[in-house]
Amino acid sequence: MLAKIHVTLKNGVLDSQGKAVHHALNDLGYSEVQDVHLGKYMEIALKGISEKEAQTRVKEMCEKLLANTVIESYRFTLEPAE
Q: Would the pLDDT of 75 be above 90?
């Protein structure tokens, strides 16, 4: 099973990297860009557990290590491993 995890800053938290990229894109002539939000993307391969157990385990991983839940949100999907 493959967990695909996205971690982003919560609304209201200053995204200084996103602002820097936004300004740089505008300076390069991409005036249609209104806002930029940066985050983290991870893929974690899991084996030997059911989808239900994987849901629980990935949620635990996100809350204990992969996301700072005070300022970040996370979401994930599970897919069959290839």
A: yes
Q: Please, which residues have CB within 8 angstroms of residue 38's CB and are 6 or more apart in sequence?
A: 8, 15, 17, 18, 21
CA 43 to the chain's CA centroid? 10
The answer to pTM > 0.85 is yes
Burial category of 21 from C-beta neighbours within 10 Å (exposed 0-12, middle 13-18, buried 19 and up): middle
Question: CATH topology for 2-79?
Answer: Mth169; Chain: A , (3.30.1280)
Residue extents of the structural domains in the chain: 2-79
